[in-house]
Every structure is written in structure tokens, then in C-alpha cells.
Amino acid sequence: xYKIGIDLVEISRIKKSxxxxxxxxxxFSETEIALFSKKATVPYQSMAANWAAKEAFSKALGTGVxxxxxxxxxxxxxxxxxxxxxxSGNAEKTAEGYEFSxxxxxxxxxxQAVVIAFRKGD
Length: 122
Prior knowledge:
The chain is an alpha+beta fold. Helices cover 38% and strands 31% of the residues. The mean pLDDT is 94.
């Protein structure tokens, strides 16, 4: 069985939100924060894309953001820049038995993500 989640967010909304340290710590994992910190300028587009991927993940599960924290869902990039999800804590438990494919994109104003969840072995 396949499940799909999608989310679209205005980058300006995330840019405003990340000015609050508590928001950043509540939403992003330590690994994500470390990666964002390595950039010469604040990567608002990437931060917004990661937000959208986390929301799309929760929609693909069908749970919404319930039973886990957003910072337990890390949206990372492989050596080629392709995004992937790394789960921990309750997010990992909630998603047990599923694998995920994620795609993100952005313009200057909007970031979007699609997450496809599928049962392992399907």
C-alpha cells in the first residue's frame, strides 16, 4: 500500500518563524541545525523545504503531527543532494514498517515537498 503526503509553505513564513530559537529547536533536529549552520547565509529555502517535508511525512502517515515531534524527523541530503528522511524516537516508532521517498522543491517564495510512504517489502 502506498500513501502520499504533500505540503506547500511560504518561505517568508518560515523565515519569520526561525527567528525564534524555540521554534528552531522544536522543529529541526540537531543534525539539521548543524547542517544549516554550515552555510554562509541562512538557508531559508532549505529550512522551508525541510518543514514542508516533515508536514508531508505526517500526512503520508495519516496521523498529522501527533505522537511524535517534528525534530524527530530529519530531512537530510545524500552526496548527490537528494533528500531523505532519518527518523528517531516516537517518529521512528510511529513509522515502523514503512519506507519513505521524499521530493522537495522551491522557488524564491514557496517550498514544497511530497512524501510517499510504502510498506517495506511492497
